[in-house]
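I am writing to request your help with a piece of structural work I have in hand. Here, with my thanks, is the record as I have it:
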Amino acid sequence: MAGIIKEISKQDASELVELATRTFYDTFGSYYDDKDFDQFFKDNYTVEKFTQEINHVDSFHYFYQEDGANVGYIKMN
């Protein structure tokens, strides 16, 4: 089955935070201490901040889905 692209709404903010946190950690986790990540995510990867970004007029967010699961995302400014 081919993947699909779905526009992200503000109601998806918590799911986006979860996916963004997981993918960022998977990509960069081996380079930094977990305590540094914990503080980074606490400061930057919040539902409030992601909701603001989703609502920004010049920002577009999409999930990439396979078999109904969000497996990636893209943000365009």
Notes: The longest strand covers residues 69-76. The helical segments are 13-28, 34-44, 47-55. The domain at 4-76 is CATH 3.40.630.30 (Aminopeptidase). The beta strands are 4-7, 60-66, 69-76.
